[in-house]
């Protein structure tokens, strides 16, 4: 099922001022977790730019930097 639709299903009870019981929460939490075999999980991500730069020089590979400006929920 589409992750967007699942998030709508998750937030819909809150929007309608309904309560989410424990069983529903556990079910939705499991459905919203990313698949363990997704390709981006195999990338050796680094948080430190300096560490990434050092490793890039050693392995002669480029650095990919993912950066964003603004509110993480796009509320700007």
Could you explain how this protein is built, in words?
- The chain has 76 residues and is an all-alpha fold.
- It has one domain.
- It has 3 helices and no strands.
- It has helices spanning 3-15, 22-32, 49-59.
- The chain is elongated, with a radius of gyration of 19 Å.
From the structure above, extract its key features:
3 helices, 76 residues, mainly alpha
Walk me through the topology.
Layout lengths: L2 H13 L6 H11 L16 H11 L17
Compose a concise summary of this entry:
This protein is 46% helix and 0% strand. It is mainly α and 76 residues long. The longest helix is centred in the N-terminal third of the chain and has 13 residues, at 3-15.
Strand and helix order: HHH
Protein structure class: mainly alpha
Span of the ends, CA to CA: 29 Å
Number of helices: 3
Helical coverage, percent range:
40-55%
- Please give the largest β-sheet: none
What is the total domain count?
Answer: 1
Beta-strand percentage?
under 5%
